[in-house]
Amino acid sequence: MINNKRKNVRFPAHARVRIPKVFEGEALLKDLSITGCGIECTMFVDVKPGAQFSMEIIPEVMSNIDKFDIQVESRWIRTGDYSCEIGFSIIASPRGKHFQRYVDYLSFRSQTE
């Protein structure tokens, strides 16, 4: 499993994401850590490894955390019959408090599930 090789634990997430320069609409944030994240979308996305984007994260309502933006760099892309998964490294979080609060929320939630 890929997660076992990671430096930082990735927490399962249920947020929505928007990357306007990559696709229209929203995708699912599958997991998140302080250094990276993975998303899944139901459309084909043509993203080259190393490309940088601004990603808007819209946390689930239960988290009580406002949406925020992070700067990401694509690392890998995996396409299937009905979905596309993309892995990103996180380069910067301009609204760091919201990002850190969301990672803390996901960490807490994963311990209580």
Give an account of the 3D structure.
- The protein has 113 residues and is an alpha+beta fold.
- It is 15% helix and 40% strand.
- The protein is built from 1 helix and 7 strands; from the N terminus they run E-E-E-E-E-E-E-H.
- It has one helix spanning 96-112; strands spanning 11-12, 16-18, 27-32, 36-41, 52-58, 68-79, 84-92.
- A 6-stranded antiparallel barrel has the order 2-3-4-7-6-5.
- A hairpin with a 3-residue loop joins strand 3 and strand 4.
- The longest helix has 17 residues, at 96-112.
- The chain is globular.
- The model has no long low-confidence stretch (mean pLDDT 88).
Q: Can I get a quick summary?
A:
The chain is α+β, with helices and mostly antiparallel strands and 113 residues long. 15% of the residues lie in helices and 40% in strands.
